[in-house]
Batch of 2 targets.
Target 1
Amino acid sequence: MFQALRRKFMLVNMLLIFIILSAALLGFYFITWLSSEQSATRLISTYMSMPLGEIHSSSDTPHLFISEIDVATYDYIQPLIDSNIFKYFKTSYAHDSFSSSQTNNILSEVVAKDDIAARIKVDDRYYKYQKQKINGERIKIVVLDVTTAIQHLRSTAFTLVAIALVSLIFVYFVSKLITELSVKPIEEMFERQGEFFSDISHELRTPLTAAITNLAVIEANKTETVQSQEKWVGFLKDQLDRLVNLVNEMLYLEDIGSGIHNETNERINFSELVEQQIKGLSAYINEKGLGLSVCIQKEVYYHGELEALTRLVSVLVDNAIKYTPEGGSISLNLAKADRRVYLTVENSGEGIEPEDLERVFDRFYRVRKSRSRNEGGQGLGLAIAKSVVEKYGGTIRITSTVGANTIFSVELPI
Ligand code: ADP
């Protein structure tokens, strides 16, 4: 599927880049052609207004000559254009490169043409001419040799075509790069989505299978009282609680991520909130024999939603306790500075490998799946914490040293 997408993407990219490049090259050619045409027309007009006597031939003037003839003679020579008509014209050369036979051939072509201005080809050379009636008596003809300009235009065209062809190779590699850069994130997103579906199926299947097993045991002892089967009923309830909890967490995550979550904005005493969370978990901390160091700045207020901020703090504190081995230590800091609230939760322990660091914020991602599940984790805590932080335009970062500690740093703009 991605191979086909890559091919299409690349084709569209190549076409687009090639069209833009061709348009630029064509534009360049058109401008060159236009300026050459304009300078030829300007030159012809300048010489058209000059009296014949003022024109002197030299080697650095334009390749041009001017001929004059009276109207009656012009009409007379019309049928004679194949013969020597040069002698009927009065001609002045601005450049000494024209021979009389060449001039004769050019004039024959000009006389044969009805257009008052055109481009002609005579003896393998190109000329631009203009003929004009002067005072109704004479006809003045200015002929400019444009062979060099045309050759120049042709070599420009060849160069541009060569550039276009060579640039095809360049376009190919650029398109390949753009395609890779564009398709890769989509591919990764699909991969993650696939993982997500497999993870969620697994998360749902585990408690469901356990619940069905418990039900089967209860069913096998139909005649027993509920009280005597309390153990199995309790297990069943635990599994169902786990399922409900999982669904609730997912719904919460979805709501907060899509921005449709309750938008209440109350003034919350963040210092108290953090203290309450620690107090609520002190029994757990003592049970594990963890050392606790807390530094909470008093009266840190934050405008936000109480439930969201409580979840953020509880996920971080809860994880710190959960993933610190017995006898380990936890330290927690809360401070306000420069219109920002800084919350840091650090715990000792085995730490997290660098390749897992960014992924711990993904839904259902757990560094050690079985261990985390035993601890009651569903792999959604940090995803929820990240969504809450992002909801308030803040950042959450993780740093960890394997075999030493893990630090979560939250920064929330006020
Ligand atoms: P869980 O419900 O599994 O705790 P989380 O999203 O909260 O899910 O955390 C994801 C994973 O990140 C955990 O499974 C754990 O491996 C790792 N983790 C989270 N917090 C810590 C911590 N304080 N110390 C070490 N590892 C942690």
Target 2
Amino acid sequence: MRRVTLTQYLIEQQRNHGKVSPELRLLIEVVARACKAISHAVSKGPLAGIGDAVGSLNVQGEAQKKLDVIANEVLIEANEWGGQLAAMVSEEMDGPYQIPNRYPKGAFLLLMDPLDGSSNLDVNISVGTIFSVLRCPEGVTEPDDKAFLQPGAKQVAAGFAVYGAATILVLTVGNGTVGFTLDRELGSFVLTQERIMIPEDTQEFAINASNMRNWGAPVKRYIDECLAGKTGPRGKDFNMRWVASMVADVYRILSRGGVFMYPCDAKHKEGRLRLMYEANPMALIVEQAGGAATNGQQRILDIQPGALHQRIGVILGSKNEVERVTGYHTQQ
Ligand code: AFP
């Protein structure tokens, strides 16, 4: 079998589909290289004190773990010097990180959640890195928040790494969604899922059921119908999974279907997940794999962001199920 590395895949996308410019290829390769370093750090577990808190809070008011901070630094150091980027934003930083003057600036903007699911670190459950790439608006040399506030449909690439039993990199450059597995001996990402397609129907849902008392009627109706199983209106039994690491939950849905929900509710009025760092990249990845992603009312990728750290309700995964839950919201 022909082994296709990430570099080969990107060059072929460039040659055959005109999808990936040399600058974008370099950018994605550098992010992937940073993910290898983060994967290595995560795999040290308690030996590296990875679950330890650093005592600070991020802009979302969440306790920062040592590795959240390290992952953010690794990504910045890897990406700042190559000349592909105009600026970066991260879930871990208040505002845009400007490329230092000693380095050339490029045409792209990088958005990242350096260590998603980090509250799972101290219990040895999968965590990951999510990233998204936008074009810097014409004529902007010092990108401010506004330069980043583009709807998700404008993303030129999005991906995530999940640091699980294997380290997997999922990527879209707008020509389907593909998956690579890190070959630790060779140190390279090898294409292992050539065309990821999410089944349109599913019998598995993912939601944090501890929020049930706060859910709105449409979400409650959908979950009640799933739980009623064979004898209920859906006429089939459903299974439930919730890892509490979006990277792991979405990877499962890409692999075998399912619907993932973190909707707005009475406690999370604006939603829990971040539009720019989590919802947009995952929505592009899922749509490119034949799935759907909405906030209950509209397609996530069409939403005009109002702030860098904006939160949003998320329903994504198998198309028919996402359409059903969204329909329960819009028919109200
Ligand atoms: P952390 O990165 O703070 O652990 O949050 C993870 C996350 O953003 C996402 O990956 C999960 O799906 C979601 O939060 C889990 O939230 P709950 O802990 O409320 O279930």
